[in-house]
Amino acid sequence: MADKIPTICSNRVSDRAKKTLDIVAKFVQEECIPADAVFDAQTGAGDARWEGHPQIIEELKLKAQSLGLWNMFLPKGHYKESPGYTTLEYGLMAEWMGRSRTASEACNCAAPDTGNMEVLAKYGNDAQKAQWLRPLMEGKVRSAFLMTEPQVASSDARNIELNITREGNEYVLNGQKWWSSGAGDPRCAIYIVMGKTDGNNKDPYRQQSVVLVPAGTPGITVNRMLNVYGFDDAPHGHGHVSFVNVRVPVSSMVLGEGRGFEIIQGRLGPGRIHHAMRTIGAAERALDWMLMRINDPQKTPFGKKLREHGVIMEWVARSRIEIDASRMLVLNAAITMDEQGPKAALSQIAEAKVMVPSMALTVIDRAVQAFGGAGVSQDTPLAYMWANVRTLRLADGPDEVHLAQMGRNENKRGEAVTKQIQWQKAKSEQLLKERNLTQVQPGTRIQHRINKAGSKL
Ligand SMILES: Cc1cc2nc3c(=O)[nH]c(=O)nc-3n(C[C@H](O)[C@H](O)[C@H](O)COP(=O)(O)OP(=O)(O)OC[C@H]3O[C@@H](n4cnc5c(N)ncnc54)[C@H](O)[C@@H]3O)c2cc1C
């Protein structure tokens, strides 16, 4: 709720956003979290899991709209379609939504639609916006972003191979994609596809382009849906999709041939902040569950409630510290993004992208441990939460890629700090010399005394 906004950023959150934050928190706690079980029950079993979507989502969407909770993710000042919240303000809302499986979609703030809508709002032309952005913003259709491919190391997007060849007034697409999140949903109407238009371009960052492909275009086959640690994420799902001579009009190109890298870079900044804040919400919910379990009067191993066992209070305290510290990191990235633009926020966003999922996994794991066997079962939300958060160490680029880049950036200071340290050492020596002193090494005086006393040591 608004009174829980960290002091460090409270004065940057408008009164309007504070009011909305209270509404979001109440909506999530009282409507969405209880509805999560209905979502699971209505998803059904077997093939039916991919043939429709739980009706509860439509009910929640109507409630969210009546409360004014719709498309809050589109940042203020960047888009005329924005409801007017800053990245910081939306980040605080996203944290609440991250506590529930249904809340983000109920408010039309679910990935990958959010990132895809930003692509269309930022880079799409008027016709593309009318055709795809409008229905997405109205919550009438859903979308998928298709970049990753099974046959290449896709964390290096230069490797992407799906071929896009121009033939007359059409582009023809051939290739394979996987981890196409959202492709399982029958409402998924549009694929935003990255592929190669100019493999011979000397600049590897100008070889790729992004095109809009309607999901039902002939030549597209969803071969299978991938599981995440055994969870299929139906009806959303993660598709393995093949393209055989898929034809789209040249007007489907976004921004222009060779601009794919520019688009994917622009897409990921705010999305990473949203993911990170939702993940903090998940960690908070895991901590809530842990608190419930450790105070359970029915469960008294070795004659005491769990909370009376020393280590458990340490888990609780460490979880609180780690969640709060991570939140600061993400909100700082959000503020930098709002006040200095996405480029200035790049390193803070990367820090958040790496730190938050690892933090949340640790907190969730402590909660799992506190529950014993129940923690890994379907009787708590923890097992699904863990599987879901674990994927964030891979999705939008694996940790190592961000760490390698951050390490290189940090190491740029290497030469300068070496010079500074050497200068400081030289100055110390000079100061000692001026005072006729020698540098004392720890232990040397004791050694000197012992030797004088004739000890063999
Ligand atoms: C649940 C889920 C949802 C996803 N949703 C989407 C989606 O909607 N659209 C989409 O296009 N993709 C999606 N992805 C794919 C995801 O973005 C990729 O899996 C990720 O970018 C890694 O690419 P890769 O799987 O090809 O692994 P690879 O590129 O083969 O990398 C494998 C491993 O190599 C290591 N590695 C890579 N680079 C370095 C380096 N520089 N230094 C050290 N080690 C390194 C890392 O440990 C990495 O995990 C999703 C993935 C998951 C799990």
UniProtKB/TrEMBL annotation:
<dbReference type="GO" id="GO:0003995">
    <property type="term" value="F:acyl-CoA dehydrogenase activity"/>
</dbReference>
<dbReference type="InterPro" id="IPR009100">
    <property type="entry name" value="AcylCoA_DH/oxidase_NM_dom_sf"/>
</dbReference>
<feature type="domain" description="Acyl-CoA dehydrogenase/oxidase N-terminal">
    <location>
        <begin position="18"/>
        <end position="140"/>
    </location>
</feature>
<dbReference type="InterPro" id="IPR006091">
    <property type="entry name" value="Acyl-CoA_Oxase/DH_mid-dom"/>
</dbReference>
<feature type="domain" description="Acyl-CoA dehydrogenase/oxidase C-terminal">
    <location>
        <begin position="258"/>
        <end position="409"/>
    </location>
</feature>
<dbReference type="InterPro" id="IPR046373">
    <property type="entry name" value="Acyl-CoA_Oxase/DH_mid-dom_sf"/>
</dbReference>
<feature type="domain" description="Acyl-CoA oxidase/dehydrogenase middle">
    <location>
        <begin position="144"/>
        <end position="244"/>
    </location>
</feature>
<dbReference type="GO" id="GO:0005737">
    <property type="term" value="C:cytoplasm"/>
</dbReference>
<dbReference type="InterPro" id="IPR050741">
    <property type="entry name" value="Acyl-CoA_dehydrogenase"/>
</dbReference>
<dbReference type="InterPro" id="IPR009075">
    <property type="entry name" value="AcylCo_DH/oxidase_C"/>
</dbReference>
<keyword id="KW-0274">FAD</keyword>
<dbReference type="GO" id="GO:0033539">
    <property type="term" value="P:fatty acid beta-oxidation using acyl-CoA dehydrogenase"/>
</dbReference>
<dbReference type="Pfam" id="PF00441">
    <property type="entry name" value="Acyl-CoA_dh_1"/>
</dbReference>
<keyword id="KW-0285">Flavoprotein</keyword>
<dbReference type="GO" id="GO:0050660">
    <property type="term" value="F:flavin adenine dinucleotide binding"/>
</dbReference>
<dbReference type="InterPro" id="IPR036250">
    <property type="entry name" value="AcylCo_DH-like_C"/>
</dbReference>
<dbReference type="Pfam" id="PF02771">
    <property type="entry name" value="Acyl-CoA_dh_N"/>
</dbReference>
<dbReference type="Pfam" id="PF02770">
    <property type="entry name" value="Acyl-CoA_dh_M"/>
</dbReference>
<comment type="subunit">
    <text>Homodimer.</text>
</comment>
<dbReference type="InterPro" id="IPR013786">
    <property type="entry name" value="AcylCoA_DH/ox_N"/>
</dbReference>
<dbReference type="InterPro" id="IPR037069">
    <property type="entry name" value="AcylCoA_DH/ox_N_sf"/>
</dbReference>
<comment type="similarity">
    <text>Belongs to the acyl-CoA dehydrogenase family.</text>
</comment>
<keyword id="KW-0560">Oxidoreductase</keyword>
<protein>
    <submittedName>
        <fullName>Acyl-dehydrogenase family member 11</fullName>
    </submittedName>
</protein>
